[in-house]
């Protein structure tokens, strides 16, 4: 049997809250521990096979977390997840600014942790994995997600200045300065940072780090680059050493090690484009 990957945008009514749905089926996985990387999204993972097993990192400080449906908030370190040879599930990327409307809790409550979705005030938190497992294909599962998530959305009031700042940071892949954003809004840097952190879950400086880091990871996955120095420049780092230091901090390893673990097909022979 072959591996399957399926992606779909959510219903238009949800697109301000959910970036995309990703469905996956994998056979013969050999990597024992997957490194869940920090990103600009709050992550919802629903396993349709064995439970998700978070063994280290945010949410596992008091012991491993084994659940079929988990939500991970914004975090500044790797989440280590034990893997089985067979895996099937769904991965949803949520906008932190939409978490309060979608999950009934603010993004700050989920920051730097991973929780069982059954503990959240949403009616689908406990039974969604079983209902998704009964469906025949990804299209039907995505349709069910559309219905359940749309029904769960609650009206909330968002701070328009923070929404604008978030969109500006996303569009610039974290390259827009905090001071510049605060001045554009007309707030002091301190006031802007405090209000931003209350809405998003991390201060704007850390959000910008996550966006640059995510950008570098996307570039590495896409391939086609000549060297890590080129990736560092495209992602907005000062140089390759800057990017490597950020990877050690946010991923727990340099990019070359992550590629060897997660993307071994990108390792090239001959020249050494992965030298840190």
UniProtKB/TrEMBL annotation:
It holds the Pfam family HTH_18. It comes from the Bacteria. Residues 178-261 form the HTH araC/xylS-type domain. The keyword Cell membrane does not apply. Keywords: DNA-binding, Transcription, Transcription regulation. PROSITE patterns: HTH_ARAC_FAMILY_2. One of its GO terms (molecular function) is DNA-binding transcription factor activity. The keyword Acetylation does not apply. SMART domains: HTH_ARAC. This is AraC family transcriptional regulator.
């Amino acid at each position: 049997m072959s591996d399957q990957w399926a992606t779909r945008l959510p219903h238009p009514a949800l697109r301000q809250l959910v970036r995309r749905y990703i469905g996956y089926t994998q056979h013969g996985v050999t990597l024992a521990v997957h490194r869940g990387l920090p990103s600009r999204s709050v992550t919802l993972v629903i396993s349709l096979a064995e439970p998700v097993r978070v063994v280290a990192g945010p949410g596992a400080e008091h012991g491993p977390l084994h659940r079929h449906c988990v939500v991970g908030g914004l975090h500044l370190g790797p989440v280590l997840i034990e893997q089985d040879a067979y895996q099937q599930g769904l991965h949803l990327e949520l906008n932190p600014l939409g978490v309060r409307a979608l999950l009934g809790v603010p993004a700050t409550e989920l920051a730097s942790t991973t929780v069982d979705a059954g503990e959240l005030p949403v009616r689908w938190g406990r039974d969604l994995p079983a209902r998704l497992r009964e469906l025949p294909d990804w299209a039907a599962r995505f349709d069910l997600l559309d219905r359940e998530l749309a029904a769960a959305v609650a009206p909330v009031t968002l701070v328009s200045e923070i929404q604008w700042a978030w969109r500006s940071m996303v569009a610039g892949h974290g390259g827009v300065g905090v001071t510049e954003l605060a001045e554009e809004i007309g707030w002091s840097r301190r006031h802007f940072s405090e209000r931003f952190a209350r809405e998003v879950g991390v201060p704007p400086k850390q959000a910008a780090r996550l966006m640059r880091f995510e950008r570098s990871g996307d570039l590495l996955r896409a391939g086609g680059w000549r060297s890590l120095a080129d990736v560092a420049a495209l992602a907005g780092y000062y140089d390759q050493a800057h990017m490597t230091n950020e990877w050690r901090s946010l991923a727990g390893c340099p990019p070359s090690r992550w590629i060897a673990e997660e993307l071994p097909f990108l390792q090239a022979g001959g020249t050494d484009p992965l030298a840190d």
